[in-house]
């Protein structure tokens, strides 16, 4: 990896991992629905400008697919993370976000697109979910069940989105333009929540600044960085950022928000990351004549 690539990876991990910090700060003056709309709109604005600058045009004939992708990849998880973080620490939210590959594997197995269920990957699934149990310690009290379920629901939503996008959107149009269109669709979908949002809020400078950083840098700029890393360093290097993200979120939660950094949470994070690593282990090569999985 080049020195520039390493800097990009570190910056991407910092920006993505800090999203949970910004959500926590935004919740001091904004509702989850308001955060979802603002985050989507600001991210869309950044990508629309970059798509226009690069000469990429918004895709035509894909808006139905983009609405589905926007719902599962943006509107629903953005909302669920904000709802969950009303009762769960930002660091823990970042760790639960790292469970998305576990759900992706389960979905792939269910759809038949991933048939390589090796002992290592089974062990990874068991360890990953055991780590989640260790973090939340359901035999103890102190973590809201609703918040935990919302955060896990966001991870599931991402997994559903990635499966759908991989089958229905990849390869259609320029990546900047497609992502800009997707976030634009997410803005429209999330705006539908506002008439039903009666949560009492008092916007303040901290909340507004946090949601601006979340939308511009945590949602818009991160796409560009991730795209450049994939193009210059390869997908494996880009995937490595997923292991750094929860470490950043836990560290920022402890340093900035004074969240408790317990042995149980750190151990649970380690177990989750080991589990995720095992689920990404290579599967045995197919023998001659064995059909490939559906694409």
Give a verbal description of the structure:
This protein is mainly α and 295 residues long. The protein contains twelve helices and no strands. The model is unreliable at 286-295 (pLDDT under 50).
Low-confidence regions:
286-295
Return Rg in Å: 19 Å
Envelope shape:
globular
The portion of residues forming beta strands comes to: under 5%
* Count of strand segments: 0
The CA-CA distance between the termini, in Å, is: 30 Å
How many helices? The count is 12
Largest sheet: none
Question: If you average the pLDDT, what whole number results?
Answer: 88
Element pattern in H and E:
HHHHHHHHHHHH
Estimate the helix proportion, in percent.
Answer: over 70%
**Derived structural class:** mainly alpha
Task: Write out key terms for the chains shown.
mainly alpha; 295 residues; disordered C terminus; 0% strand
Q: In a few lines, what is going on in this structure?
A:
Helix content is 73%, strand content 0%.
How are the elements arranged and paired?
Blueprint: H1 3-17, H2 19-26, H3 32-53, H4 63-84, H5 90-97, H6 100-111, H7 119-136, H8 145-168, H9 175-191, H10 205-233, H11 235-256, H12 263-279
Helix pairs in contact: 1-10, 1-11, 2-5, 2-10, 3-4, 3-9, 3-10, 4-8, 4-9, 5-11, 6-8, 7-12, 10-11
